[in-house]
Structure to design on (600 residues):
């Protein structure tokens, strides 16, 4: 960018290209911490999961949790990374969230490097690295409304200190807040699919920092970036990036410079606020952690870990889409598929489709009804779910009845035929249906004349009456067909 | 190798270190030093860095980098919980405690 180029000094959004990279920290689903046997548990009483190692007491020595290494490898493999011999470093700083005054992390020799993640929009984001490190303790600021710079004092809980993390660093490959959200969402799905993390942003087990810069459209040199922290949901991530892009375009468009700094997202006010300047960035005095030896996963260990992970969300979505037929799936269907995969309920759809149920029906009931209570849906007996869809498909239950039965199955379990019987949901046979329709028609001669005269919308009127008269046992489509038959 | 590094050899001169450099390093380690001490340690630090420069000048072509002095790798433990410390005992070691947590002074230097 040249200072005298007028075209660069425009606040017109189209004249600028945002460049976004994300750093995602995820807590691993291990039973214990990274370097000691204290429990890795969210929400326990403060300072109950602490020991000499994670409190940094003199003479204590860390021993690496093998499960954490395997989870880190799972994440690396799922992101198409190269798994490398790695070592740990000490990152030194003075801040009470780490009692040792350093955090053990991986610095210039991380376990996973050079991967990529493909987004549902077919774009590809490069992964620079995915390394292991330990989490810090949790600090609460007391007084001054809980804000760090007004606080009277702080309280520290070290239960989280030493919990294993993997930090996934993307290349600056994203160009919009939408794409950044898509990346975070897809990455979360992958983390959950590997079993390495539960990816819960609201509990802080997945934390996202965004690096944002802007540059004149059509150029390649990166602009000065700001790092945004405190993004606790996908929504915050999108809003904060949008705000930051506009702020930076406003600055450079007016001929000012972006200052490289860390900024804090204020959710309530919808703004980012400067935390500290990167020019005075902490010098962390990294040096190799002498108490830990290198981690060198050989080919057989890598193969073992690779065999322990199932298919990733993209592959699972493709499989479900394939069940619907060769045509490209609609946006609505794609959303249903994404919902099913996100909640890990693919098995219900594939089992039903495999048993001859229409895949679109199986997908609809799984994404709309079963996904409303995903935990219950994962407990539901697959055979019962399939049996229910069969009943609906064969016209033994109307759609409404089927949803009611499914809701009860999700809540209490049970056999769908039995539930339907108990609720009086057995669909009318054709003869009984014709009788009920004839009775309803006879009771409403005026409406019938209008229907015969061409007012098709009265189908709804008659169907409603037939439903009430039959205690919801009639199938709506069958009623409409019978009405058409009577009209001749 | 203790003491003064060799000087005068081409390409391995003692690097110079200013009092400001020494003060920066001291600040990183939160050590409060007098000006006299800073001058003393600037010379000593320069000697240490000079020694590292000598090592860096060696031909290490084809030598595998040393990741750790011990000839070990992949030292791990299984992911099995072990008892943690008693909280009352832990908190009794702290200068100040509140609400089951360690009470620390307000954290400065984060905000502008």
């Amino acid at each position: 960018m040249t200072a005298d180029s007028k075209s660069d000094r425009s606040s017109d959004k189209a004249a600028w290209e945002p460049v976004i990279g994300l750093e995602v920290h995820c807590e691993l689903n291990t039973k214990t911490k990274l370097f000691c046997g204290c429990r890795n548990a969210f929400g326990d009483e403060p300072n109950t999961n602490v020991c000499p190692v994670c409190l940094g007491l003199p003479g204590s020595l860390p021993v690496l949790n093998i499960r954490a290494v395997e989870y880190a490898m799972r994440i690396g493999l799922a992101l198409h990374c190269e798994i490398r011999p790695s070592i740990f470093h000490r990152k030194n700083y003075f801040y009470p969230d780490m009692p040792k005054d350093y955090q053990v992390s991986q610095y210039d020799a991380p376990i996973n490097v050079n991967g990529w993640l493909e987004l549902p929009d077919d774009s590809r984001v490069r992964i620079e690295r995915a390394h292991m490190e330990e989490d810090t303790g949790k600090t609460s600021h007391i007084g001054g409304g809980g804000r760090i710079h007004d606080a009277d004092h702080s309280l520290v809980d070290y239960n989280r200190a030493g919990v294993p993390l993997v930090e996934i660093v993307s290349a600056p490959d994203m160009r919009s807040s939408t794409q950044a959200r898509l990346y975070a969402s897809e990455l979360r799905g992958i983390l959950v699919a590997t079993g390495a993390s539960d990816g819960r942003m609201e509990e802080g087990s997945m934390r996202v920092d965004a690096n944002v810069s802007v540059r004149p459209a059509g150029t390649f040199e990166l602009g000065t970036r700001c790092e945004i922290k405190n993004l606790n949901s996908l929504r915050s991530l999108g809003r904060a990036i949008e705000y930051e892009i506009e702020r930076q375009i406003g600055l450079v468009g007016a001929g000012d410079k972006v200052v490289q700094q860390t900024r804090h997202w204020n959710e309530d006010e919808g703004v980012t606020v400067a935390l500290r300047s990167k020019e005075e960035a902490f010098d962390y005095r990294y040096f190799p952690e002498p108490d830990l030896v290198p981690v060198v996963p050989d080919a057989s260990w890598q193969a073992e870990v690779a065999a322990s992970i199932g298919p990733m969300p993209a592959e699972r979505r493709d499989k479900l889409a394939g069940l619907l037929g060769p045509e490209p799936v609609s946006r609505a269907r794609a959303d249903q598929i994404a919902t099913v995969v996100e909640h890990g309920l693919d098995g219900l759809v594939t089992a039903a489709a495999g048993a001859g149920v229409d895949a679109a029906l199986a997908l609809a009931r799984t994404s709309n009804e079963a996904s409303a209570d995903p935990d219950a849906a994962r407990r539901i007996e697959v055979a019962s779910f399939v049996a229910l869809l069969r009943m609906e498909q064969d016209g033994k239950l109307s759609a409404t009845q089927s949803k009611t039965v499914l809701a009860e199955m999700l809540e209490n379990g049970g056999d769908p035929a039995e539930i339907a019987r108990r609720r009086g949901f057995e669909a009318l046979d054709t003869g009984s249906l014709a009788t009920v329709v004839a009775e309803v028609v006879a009771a409403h001669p005026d409406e019938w004349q209008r229907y015969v005269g061409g007012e098709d919308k009265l189908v709804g009127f008659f169907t409603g009456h037939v439903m009430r008269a039959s205690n919801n046992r009639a199938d709506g489509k069958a009623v409409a067909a019978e009405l058409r038959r009577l009209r001749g | 190798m203790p003491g003064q590094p060799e000087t005068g050899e081409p390409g391995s001169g003692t690097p110079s270190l200013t009092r400001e450099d020494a003060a920066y390093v001291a600040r990183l380690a939160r050590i409060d030093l007098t000006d006299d001490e800073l001058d003393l340690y600037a010379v000593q630090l320069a000697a240490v860095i000079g020694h590292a420069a000598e090592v860096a000048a060696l031909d290490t072509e084809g030598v595998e980098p040393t990741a750790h002095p011990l000839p070990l790798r992949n030292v791990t433990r299984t992911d099995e919980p072990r008892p943690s410390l008693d909280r009352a005992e832990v908190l009794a070691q702290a200068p100040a405690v509140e609400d089951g947590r360690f009470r620390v002074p307000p954290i400065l230097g984060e905000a502008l």
Summary: The CA atoms of residues 449 and 455 of chain A lie 9 Å apart. Chain A touches chain B through 57 residues (CB under 8 Å). The two ends of chain A are 76 Å apart (CA to CA).
